[in-house]
Design brief:
The complex is a heterotrimer of chains A (about 475), B (about 280) and C (about 300). Chain B contains 13 helices and 4 strands. With about 280 residues, chain B is mainly α. In chain B, the strands form 2 sheets. A two-stranded antiparallel sheet of chain B has the order 1-2. Chain B has a two-stranded antiparallel ribbon with strand order 3-4. In chain B, a hairpin with a 2-residue loop joins strand 3 and strand 4. Chain C has a single domain, classed as MetI-like fold (Orthogonal Bundle), CATH 1.10.3720.10. Classes of the chains: A alpha+beta (about 475), B mainly alpha (about 280), C mainly alpha (about 300). Chains B and C meet through helix 1, helix 4, helix 5, helix 6 and helix 7 of B and helix 1, helix 2, helix 4, helix 5 and helix 6 of C.
Amino acid sequence: MYDKEKGLFDAFVKQQMSRRELIRATGKLGLGAAATGILLNQAQTRAMAADFDWMKFKGSKLKLLLNKHPYADAMIANIDTFKTMTGMEVSYDIFAEDVYFDKVTAALSSGSTEYDAFMTGAYMTWTYGPAGWITDLNEYIKDPAKTHPTYNWDDMLPGLRASTAWNGVPGGELGSADAKQWCIPWGYELNNISYNQKMFDKVGVQVPKNIGEMVEVAAKLKADLGGPYGIGVRGSRSWASIHPGFLSGYANFGEKDFNVADGKLKAAMNTAGSKAFHADWVKMIQDSGAKDWSTHTWYQVGTDLGAGASAMIFDADILGYFMNGGDNKEKGNIGYAPFSANPAASAPTPNVWIWSLGMNNAGIQKDAAWYFMQWASSTEHGLFGAQKMDFVNPVRASVWKDEIFRKRIDTAYPGYLNQHDVSAPGAKIYFTAQPLFFDLTTQWSETLQKMVARELPVDEGLDKMAEDIDSKLKEAGLG
Amino acid sequence: MDHSSTFEKALRSALITLVLIFFLFPILWIFLMSLQTNETILRIPPSILFEPNLDNYRALITGKLQTTAGNLDIAFMRNLWNSVLLSTFSVALSLLLGVPAAYAFARFKFRLGEDIAFTLLSFRFAPPLLVLLPLSLYFKTLGLTNTYIGLIWVYQLICLPLILWIVRGYFEDISPDIEHAYRIAGNSWWKTFTRVAIPLARPGIAAAGLLAFIFAWNNFVFALILASADKQPVTVGALAFVTASGIQYGQIAAAIVLSVTPTLALALYAQRYLVEGLSMGAVKG
Amino acid sequence: MTANTANSSRHVKQSRFMRKALPYILSLPALLMCIGILIPFFTAVYYSMLRYRLNLPQMKGFIWFGNYVNFFYDPSFWNTVYISLLYAFLTVSLELMLGLAIALLLQKPTRFNNIASILLLLPLMTAPALASLMWKLMTNPNFGILSYFAGLLGFHDFRWASDPSTALFTVVLVDIWVYTPFIMILLLAGLRSLPQAPFEAAALDGVPRSFVFFRITLPMLMPYIITASLFRLLDSIQQFDIIYSMTQGGPGDKLLVFQVQAYLDFFQSTNVGRSAALMIILWAITYFLSNIFIKQWLKLRERAHGAG
């Protein structure tokens, strides 16, 4: 290894030099971009080894519970780095998403010590936290003896840090001062428009700017394309149909799920604003949504866009990202755009899904588990995943600034960076944190299904639902 | 003995054809999907014309899945092996315990006999979820979590009542006279049971064993809750192709085809015993 | 049972002992194997009397039959009872009729019929959890071959499981596809092991075929019919895989059967108390229905042996 280059990279890693300066300097030395990448990784390993005993738990055997997901794939592709650096053994159980959370609930509720750390969504920690199954990670993040000096927690996007922290009080504000950090953000999705550029050009429409335009454009697309339908959104009877596009648009009008007063929750889904938004949403699906909307999960929404059965989706940005590659028929035709449902809103307010890492509270080697968690959520691994794998969207501001990553995305996914950059400041969880989250959002989706099927008028349906939810809250001692 | 008219024969053939189409068309369609990529499966409208390729099978058998994000390891063959192991041993154990018990209930009237028989059936009443979650706690204490033995034990919930009650029916239908005659000729009870009773009930045992095998094979909730990834059957394993970046229909179809093969082979083998039904009828009372 | 004539006094003694003990020796191992599973069952009964949500630990408390009493006033509970019973009734009765018809068609043990009967087991061999994924694709309005066929027949807007008016039809259809072979194979094995004498006598006397079917075949087959429908009923009233993977209980609350509701209550809401109470009620319904079947079965058996 040439000392001169080594010096350059170490300077960069210590943040004494910007990436542009680094690239210019290495260019002078005659190093190509690929070599730069390799040397940079080695420098990162050296940097991470400084002033911190990574080998403290040498020989420990960690076991992880993982969901079958590109984020897990990216981690596995890089896991040797961690093993070499720490001398630990890491094994993992991977389950398909269809059954993944059942497996997590079964393992955690039985007090199993088998798994040290696992993948989770932020919403799930509203169950796991109060149930006592996961560890408050503040005690690790804030302890310099346990956390590497360059970990840089504040580099995580603030909306995500807050969205994964909750004080456990029903209705308690996410990210409040007394909040417990139930999990570490790992990768995330925000909800915007992904659309089929070719179909838009054919019909001659622009990407809609608000819900009214979305209803119109979707209808025109459906009518003029003669085959594909206008707009894909999730509709299956599940909480998962509420949190993506639907709640993002809902929140953009300043509408809330609950009002919290004196520690008591009250349903807020039957305000005039809420009713108007629901009416637009229902009409949009009836006029130009999928025929089989009521069974649409993540998979059907994505598949239809990728196979040219739908012209646009209002769902997770990375769902649109995935559909622009692989063996999808429409790969290369997908564009991305930010979306504010409310014409009066200044910026989008995408509700987010955050794949995170949680620590098993029953685990018997928590300190070692934290070593894994901080490595897996480090800038170094984030860069590896973002540059070389589909570890998208990154949760760290520094990774979003990385030029190799930005260039890769901008070339293959036009508009993606822009939709993210415009929406990221408003991206967070817009739900009220409370223990009945899954019951009540499932009920919400059921009500939407009945409205779309014209079994229930919107206004009356929402009044009835709010009333019913209030009684459920009372029964659970929350209302 | 056969009085069928030409019209009846034609009607019969037509009906059988309809039945075969209804039940086998989806199977055929799944088989065709297993030879395609997602790109041709997801065409609008669907079409039967495609260039067949064996990539899905290759991926499943070699355990290497090519994706745009690189090579991924999949453990499908391991899942298949687990299914074979779990189903075979569960059914074998159920037969070992269930056939003698079925015989006892069919041949003897004894105190509490019907109560025991009904209790054994009632294990089938409990929804799996009801027993599984408390069971996961007890398994931890007993050290049975994540063991094949523990799983085979729980699989008895599926197999044993089925085998017991179906085989019992067959024993009831066989006249005891033949066994009596054999006994009087000086043969031990055990010999009578194994040499006369079991062979006579063989069609029933074959049908019950085959069905129990199929039900064990199709189960997935037991292993999912009670075991780690390395002990999962093919039903859980095949769900791995439902990925965040899309459902890999071709691979799931190939997984179904591969997972059906061992059961189909067993059924074809058992078929000769199922057919015996008629020839044995002659010796029944 | 008639006692055997024994050829020696030693033999008599042994057989007397055997007659007493043998049935227990034969049946107890099976019982012992399963009895351990009763313990979790009683744990679940205890859970069903708790106000117990895993994510509201401070609320935990013993409330006797509170969960059950709540169901009584809960319209969604009665909806679940109604849907579950309707689903079980439709699937079991349709599969029974179809299964019996197919078994009669394939009764003659020709080579073709034997192979056909095995091939017809294929739907049963594809795990319902995976088969439903395939059915969901085949009924997809864009890529689905069945939707395409429906379109050719003039049903351009047929929405299968996604529409409230056809959702039940669709999942029942898939259930019929998967489980009719189960009934078919049991009845086929039963038909083929029926004694021939009565049929030969009837044929000689020129008795009409319908009379033979209703007066000889059907009564003799009845024990098999009861066993087959009993097992089908046990699984059908506890249906989960097909409904959950095709519609998750929707659209609306159209297909919220017991197991789907209990599953959501446990795994999503972690409402252990409610989930356990729901499943205990399902268990009680199953117990009640099976009891009727078994009583009938024993009566038929009694009559058959009395006659023989």
